[in-house]
Amino acid sequence: MVFLLKKILGKLDGMILLLLLVFMTISIFCIYSATWKDPAFAGSYIKMIYFYVLGFAVVFGMLFFNYKILLKLSPILYLIGLGLLVLLFFRGQTINNAQGWFTVGQFSFQPAELCKLLLILFLAYFLSKREVESLSLLKEVIPMGVITFVPFLLVLMQPDLGNSIGYVIIFIVVCWMGNIRYRHALIGLVVVAVVSGASLYSYITYHEQVKTFMASYDKEYWLDRIDAVLLPEQASEKATYHMERAVIAIGSGSLEGDGYLKGSSIQSGRVPYTYSDSIFVVIGEEFGFLGCSILLMLYFFLIYRMTIISLSLSSKRGIYIIAGISAMFLFQIFENIGMLIGIMPITGITLPFISYGGTSLLINMISIGLVLNIRIYDDVETEAMTVGQPSVS
Q1: Where are the alpha helices (DSSP H) in the chain?
Q2: Percentage of the chain modeled with pLDDT above 70
Q3: pLDDT > 90? residue 232
Q4: Of 1-10, 39-48, 282-291, which gets the smallest average pLDDT?
Q5: Which of 55, 284, 325, 331 could be disulfide-bonded to 169 (CB atoms 3.0-4.6 Å)?
Q6: Backbone angles phi, psi at 53, to 5 degrees
Q7: Is 183 exposed, middle or buried (0-12, 13-18, 19+ CB in 10 A)?
C-alpha cells in the first residue's frame, strides 16, 4: 500500500489538478452571477460545489485501481450504456424538447454523456485487441463505425444533435490515432464533403418541403436551430432570439467586460440558460475578451498536459483513450462557444467544467481521473515483464 501511494504521488499530474481547481472557481463564481437574482436557481452555485467535491473524490478514488480493469469490462459497460439509451424512450424525461434524461427526485442523469466515455473505452479495447500497424477498412474501420453508429443514432433520435455529433468526432480521432490508411481517410473525407454539400444544397433548395415534412412530425424546432445559422432571414424570431441575445451580450463585454455581477444582459435575464449551456456569455459580458481568452488558454493547457501524458505512454490503448477524451472535450468547447457566437446551431451541450450540471461534470471528472490513472499504471506490465530477467551487459 505504501509503495502504491508513493507511485501515485510520484506520477500524479499536479498541473491538471490545479487546472481543475481553477475551473471550479470560475464555474462557481459564474453560476452565482447568473443565478443570484433568480430565487428558483439562487442556490445552484452551492450544488455545483457539492458536485465538484464529489468529482474530486471520484478522481482520487480512481487512482487506486488499474484502468485496464475498465478496458476489460468495456464491452459489458458499452452494452449497459446502450440499454440506458433505449430505456430513455420508455422512461426518459423530456427537457428542452429532448427525451434524454432520467429523473429521480431532484437528481437528473443524462446517459448520452456517460455513453461518450463508454464508447471511448470500447473503441480503445477493440483496437488494443487487433494490434495492427494500420487499420483495415473491413476489419477495423467499419466495425468501429458500427460500434459508434448505434449510440449515435439512439442519441440523435432523442433528439440530441450536439452529443450525437460528439460520438462521430470521437470515432474520427480514435481512427486517426489508430493509424487509419490515408486513402481510407481521403475516401471518408470525400464522402463527408459530398454528402454535406448535397444535404446543404437540398436543404436550402427544398426548405419549404422539408419544413412541412418536419412539421408533420412536430419536429420543426430542429429546423429553427439550423435556420438560425444557415438561413437567419427565414428563421423565426424565437429561433434566433437565443443566439442574437448571446452575441450582443458577448460583444458588449468588449475588452475588459462590464465587471462581475454588472453584465446588463445577464442580470436582466435576457439570455436563456446562462447558468448552464450559455455560461460563456457570463464570461464574455462581465470579463470581456480578456476573460474569454484566459478561459481558452486554460483549456489549451489542459489539452496540452493530456497530450504530453499520451506522448510518454508505452501502451497504445492508453493513447487511444486520452485521444478520445481530448476529442470529446475539444468538440464540447467548440460547439458550446460556437453556438453562442453564431457559427454553430444552438444545442444543449455544456461547456466542460464550467456549466452547471452534475452529470456532465462528473463524467468530465471521471475522464480526467482516467487520464491520471493511465499515466500511473501505464508501465505496470513493462515492470512485470522485466522483473527477474537477467541483465545483458
Answers
A1: 2-11, 14-35, 44-61, 67-91, 111-130, 142-156, 161-177, 182-205, 207-216, 220-230, 237-252, 264-268, 279-311, 316-340, 358-377, 380-386
A2: 94
A3: no
A4: 1-10
A5: 331
A6: -60, -45
A7: exposed
